[in-house]
Specification:
Number of helices: 8
Oligomer: single chain
Helix content: 40-55%
Largest sheet: 6 strands, mixed
Distance between the termini: 65 Å
Number of strands: 11
Mean pLDDT: 81
Order of helices and strands: HHHHHHEEEEEEHEEEEEH
Length: 326
């Protein structure tokens, strides 16, 4: 019983430990000079709380700005997708104007008795369909009318073809992706790359709207097709007109990159996109472009804001510390 009384109780044990800590702390402070005590006081009261406050503040601010940037980036991507959709829809609207033009059907369905007769018809009527005034203000790279009417003559906008295969169109292709446009009868979207043995004035890569000209049954002796090639330079300029993204690119339904602001080639054979190319801390955003079988993708590096904030944090802390010291 006496031994139990002499053994310290839990509460008394805590008091003893606290007394030892205070005694050790008093001994430590008694052996410090005034300057050393002042430095410790400065660190504990000013510097350490300031560092903790800055870390919390910058983390919260960085997170808020990252969220605001993502919101702005999503808005920009939506705007780009809407512009692309408007442009492609205008191209289909142009194709429909030709689709409903009875005079065009009369000219290409007619069986010409001689080349001279066709040339006269072309210069007086057909040529006007493909003039710059007719295509303005559409951003069209080229327009071509295919027909199996052998009495026509090949030219810049007319091409005779025995069998109209929408995927090939009498070309030697290394890549072709033909997809119907949703909700549009007889209208297709085609991405292709042609194996060209000779240097061409235009690039061998093409994005085209194809429209079957079969509206008037009384002019159905021949199979006719309208092809409208989209100006790739216009699309490239539209994608490059943004500094928010590390890269913007337009991808078809097979994952091939048709046109891009950076990284991928915009001429020659098409590059393929893989999600494995996306690095850590990098966000991939995508949007469908209306009813068209294409996807607009944007890549944004989250580290950009973090790096800027880290540098800003170091500068701000350094300036604050210098001000306190002086």
């Amino acid at each position: 019983a006496d031994e139990l009384k002499r053994r310290p109780q839990p509460k008394n044990r805590k008091c003893i430990i606290m007394k030892k800590i205070r005694k050790s702390l008093k001994y430590f402070l008694d052996n410090l000079s005034f300057a050393q005590k002042f430095i410790i006081l400065f660190l504990c009261v000013i510097v350490i709380p300031m560092v903790i406050q800055d870390i919390v503040y910058y983390k919260q601010t960085e997170k808020r700005i990252q969220e605001e940037m993502l919101g702005k980036i999503n808005e920009t991507l939506d705007d780009k997708a809407e512009k692309l959709n408007t442009f492609l829809s205008e191209t289909i609207y142009l194709a429909k104007e030709y689709y409903n033009n009875e005079t065009l059907y009369q000219c290409i369905d007619h069986e010409y008795g001689s080349d001279l007769e066709y040339l006269v018809q072309y210069q007086t009527i057909l040529q006007n369909f493909f003039s710059e005034t007719s295509l303005h203000p559409y951003h069209i790279g080229n327009m071509l009318l295919y027909s199996n009417n052998n009495t026509l003559l090949n030219g810049a906008h007319i091409k005779k073809i025995n069998v109209i295969n929408l995927e090939e169109l009498d070309e030697s292709l290394s890549y072709s992706n033909l997809q119907p446009v949703e909700g549009e009868k007889g209208i297709y979207f085609r991405v292709s790359h042609e194996n060209s043995r000779f240097q061409k004035l235009s690039d061998s890569r093409s994005l085209s709207i194809l429209c079957m000209l079969d509206h008037y049954q009384q002019y159905a002796r021949y199979v006719n097709l309208l092809r409208i090639d989209i100006d790739l330079g216009y699309l490239e300029g539209l994608l490059m007109d943004s500094s928010l993204f590390d890269n913007l690119f337009l991808m078809d339904s097979k994952g091939s990159v048709m046109i891009a602001a950076h990284q991928y080639s915009n001429s020659g054979p098409l590059d393929s996109f893989s999600s494995e190319e996306i690095e850590d801390n990098t966000v991939l955003l995508s949007r469908n472009v209306g009813k068209f079988p294409v996807i607009l993708c944007g890549i944004y590096d989250m580290r950009t804001i973090s790096q800027e904030f880290s540098q800003s944090r170091r500068i701000s802390f350094g300036v604050s510390l210098l001000c306190l010291l002086f």
